[in-house]
């Protein structure tokens, strides 16, 4: 089973930026579709963005134009660059391997 470890979360002011990273174990990272999801208490986990092995991307409408998902298949790492952050982006962000593995999550808080 793939193990995923997120990092890069934290507290940031509105309008600021953060970059999340997700380090994946296993040599088959490069052939998997990967994604970022987020969840706030009392709500369902929602898709933020995903990226295929070929680099095709898809974004939730609420983050399109502000967030960028990317991957480094040599380093087995998935990234999420988040710019122009808003308070409503506050959530726990999870890395997901579309074979069914989740990371432990990293908290992102956008507040002044």
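^ Assign residues to that structure.
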């Amino acid at each position: 089973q793939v193990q995923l470890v997120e990092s890069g979360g934290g507290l940031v002011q509105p309008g600021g930026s953060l970059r999340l990273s997700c380090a994946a174990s296993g040599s088959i990272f490069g052939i998997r579709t990967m994604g970022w999801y987020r969840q706030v208490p009392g709500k369902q986990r929602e898709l933020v963005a995903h990226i295929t092995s070929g680099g095709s991307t898809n974004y939730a409408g609420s983050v399109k134009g502000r967030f960028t998902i990317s991957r480094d298949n040599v380093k087995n790492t998935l990234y999420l660059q988040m710019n122009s952050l808003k308070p409503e982006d506050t959530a726990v962000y999870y890395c997901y391997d579309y074979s069914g593995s989740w990371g432990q999550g990293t908290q992102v808080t956008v507040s002044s």
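The chain has no helices and eleven strands.
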